Amino acid sequence: MNLTPIFLTLWWVFFAGVGSGVGVLVAGDGSGDLRSLLEFKKGIEVDPLGKVLNSWNRSGADPEKCPRGWHGVVCDESELSVVAIVLDRLGLEGELKFNTLLGLKMLRNLSLAGNSFTGRLVPVMGSMSSLEVLDLSGNRFYGPIPARISELWNLNYVNLSNNNLKGGFPGGFHNLQQLKTLDLHSNEISGDFGTLLSEFRNVDYVDLSHNKFYGGISAGKENVSSLANTVQYVNLSYNDLSGGFFDDESIVLFRNLQVLDLGNNQIRGELPSFGSLPNLQVLNLRNNQLYGSIPKGLLESSMPLTELDLSGNGFTGKLLAALDRVI
């Protein structure tokens, strides 16, 4: 994954001549990083491959530098600071304490996907201001998403899917101007999606499926424009959405949209004319409460549809001739 570059904080260095030598005072070193990693390691109880427990050892590690030989630890070019921890799919288990990572002032990527970690996402995570990538998917983390996650202004990728997270969707996501991917699917997160629409800015990929979001999607164009300008993938299936569909003025704004999945909700009413969505490839509206005729703009326009699922609704009219183009 290409990470958005950030400017690293320059360490102040003071040089003073002492006799014939030169004294050097450095305001930061790797000793805090080493301590943080060792504290974080204490939460790992099971490591079937021995990748972490066997390599994350104080012996042989320079306390003033980033431990570059430790599995999954990535150091910066100066070898002073940890910039990434990547421990995906190692079968690790344990209850993690995220406050142990606060000492990693330059950490940009925290990726623990596909393990069996448990624990809460604590509010102090909002102090990890250098984070750009946060991937905790496929674990057993529980509790609410802390509101202070919206203080991580450098985030461009967030994946908390397939956990046991509950509670309301935190506000303030409009502060995350760099965020491109938001994947929260398969949790028990709730919130009024109608009020969330205006929270998403510059996002390319949104997957909130298999949660407990409610409310309608029939917001006016002024509320969807910030999302519609950039988003390519939207999956809101298997929630409790209701109300009407996007209206004519709103749907045409989604000119970059490639996938729209709203299946298995309670969205009702008639569909808009759609017009031309030049990039739409997948449209899934199955198992809702939609009715009326299928818009000609959907079936006869220049949209490059490869998958269309309108089953489980109450549409009427003759479809076969129009569907020949899609099948």
From TrEMBL:
<protein>
    <submittedName>
        <fullName>Putative inactive receptor kinase</fullName>
    </submittedName>
</protein>
<dbReference type="GO" id="GO:0016301">
    <property type="term" value="F:kinase activity"/>
</dbReference>
<keyword id="KW-0677">Repeat</keyword>
<feature type="domain" description="Leucine-rich repeat-containing N-terminal plant-type">
    <location>
        <begin position="32"/>
        <end position="76"/>
    </location>
</feature>
<dbReference type="GO" id="GO:0016020">
    <property type="term" value="C:membrane"/>
</dbReference>
<keyword id="KW-0675">Receptor</keyword>
<keyword id="KW-0732">Signal</keyword>
<dbReference type="InterPro" id="IPR032675">
    <property type="entry name" value="LRR_dom_sf"/>
</dbReference>
<dbReference type="Pfam" id="PF00560">
    <property type="entry name" value="LRR_1"/>
</dbReference>
<dbReference type="InterPro" id="IPR053059">
    <property type="entry name" value="Inactive_SerThr-Kinase_ABA"/>
</dbReference>
<feature type="transmembrane region" description="Helical">
    <location>
        <begin position="6"/>
        <end position="27"/>
    </location>
</feature>
<dbReference type="Pfam" id="PF13855">
    <property type="entry name" value="LRR_8"/>
</dbReference>
<dbReference type="InterPro" id="IPR013210">
    <property type="entry name" value="LRR_N_plant-typ"/>
</dbReference>
<keyword id="KW-1133">Transmembrane helix</keyword>
<dbReference type="InterPro" id="IPR001611">
    <property type="entry name" value="Leu-rich_rpt"/>
</dbReference>
<dbReference type="Pfam" id="PF12799">
    <property type="entry name" value="LRR_4"/>
</dbReference>
<keyword id="KW-0433">Leucine-rich repeat</keyword>
<dbReference type="InterPro" id="IPR025875">
    <property type="entry name" value="Leu-rich_rpt_4"/>
</dbReference>
<keyword id="KW-0472">Membrane</keyword>
<keyword id="KW-0812">Transmembrane</keyword>
<dbReference type="Pfam" id="PF08263">
    <property type="entry name" value="LRRNT_2"/>
</dbReference>
<keyword id="KW-0808">Transferase</keyword>
<dbReference type="InterPro" id="IPR003591">
    <property type="entry name" value="Leu-rich_rpt_typical-subtyp"/>
</dbReference>
<keyword id="KW-0418">Kinase</keyword>
